[in-house]
Design a protein that fits this description.
By secondary structure, the chain is mostly helical. It has one domain (about 5-70). Helices cover about 85% and strands about 0% of the residues. The chain has helices at about 5-30, 35-45, 50-60, 60-70. Helix 1 (about 5-30) packs across helix 2 (about 35-45) and helix 1 (about 5-30) runs parallel beside helix 3 (about 50-60).
Length: about 70
Amino acid sequence: MDGTAGGIGVLLMLAFVFWLYIWLPASMAAGRGRSSVGWVILTIVFSPFITIIALLVLGPTVETALARLRNS
């Protein structure tokens, strides 16, 4: 086994961490009408699992929910 396999593993791990800590909470927050940057900061401070659960529990903002109802 050479160093290339280890390098690919590190890149895959970094991609997963980026997805978990940055992209997933940011996209969830944006889809719910909340601040992406604020939720990413909360994710870094606390945990991605806590912030994802919080976003699921909180749901969309009132404005976002009303806009979705108008468009339906």
